[in-house]
What does this fold into?
Amino acid sequence: MTKDKTISPNQEKLAKYAKVLSHPVRVYILEFLAKQACCFSGDLDKLLPIARSTLSQHLKELKNADLIQGNIEYPKIRYCLNTEKWEEAKKMFTGFFME
It folds into this structure.
């Protein structure tokens, strides 16, 4: 069997979400953003005991998975959950674990 006949687009998307959630810092960021409207990267920098460059990489991974959005408000970047994709991810994981 070929990949395109065995792996569905939903399975690929679920795996993408699972991969981005595989690091505890990214899970923390998502939980933090889920509890408030938005935050600035500097706020996260103060909360997490990691280098700014490491935080930036985690934020980039979350953005690439479309789970967060970043808007430049010079000189800062404001991050918010992408609520549509966040809800999609929650539904996909719920469905996966309910099977």
